[in-house]
């Protein structure tokens, strides 16, 4: 068991979110579900809390009511090996959500994600500051990160 587990507070749609996330990421599964009993302030059988796993990372969810909302101060950074992976995750996570700048997005539940190709870090970490700067400037013009455009900017220096 991992020592630190992200705990996500939802108003009333934790089960929908958990099912959505496990359908998007490969090697994912729902591990446990606890439901509210009769007499609870929500309908009996509604998910109270649950645990699930995405790519080996455990998460916990709670249907805790409308007191708290997600914001960009916390996001999940997903390293993608290919542009196809970036495109697939971006398209699924922005469906019903919203695109943000530089690879950031909010999904339909309001949770923030960063969908980033690994090549971005490689190119921006180049010892040639002009190449790295060109890549950074290209990234600033993007919502979904486009690896081909990053490479093109890199090669212009």
Describe this structure in words.
By secondary structure, the chain is an alpha/beta fold. It folds into two domains: 1-67, Signal recognition particle alu RNA binding heterodimer, srp9/1; 70-157, 2,3-Dihydroxybiphenyl 1,2-Dioxygenase, domain 1. It is 32% helix and 27% strand. It has five helices and eight strands. It has helices at residues 14-24, 83-94, 118-124, 129-140, 147-155, and strands spanning 7-10, 29-35, 47-54, 57-63, 75-80, 98-99, 104-106, 112-117. Strands 1-4-3-2 form a four-stranded mixed beta sheet, covered by helices on one side. It is elongated, with a radius of gyration of 19 Å.
Descriptors:
157 residues; 8 strands; alpha/beta; Signal recognition particle alu RNA binding heterodimer, srp9/1; 32% helix; four-stranded mixed sheet; 2 domains; 2,3-Dihydroxybiphenyl 1,2-Dioxygenase, domain 1
Topology:
Layout: E1 7-10, H1 14-24, E2 29-35, E3 47-54, E4 57-63, E5 75-80, H2 83-94, E6 98-99, E7 104-106, E8 112-117, H3 118-124, H4 129-140, H5 147-155
Parallel strand pairs: 1-4, 5-8
Antiparallel strand pairs: 2-3, 3-4, 6-7, 7-8
Helix pairs in contact: 4-5
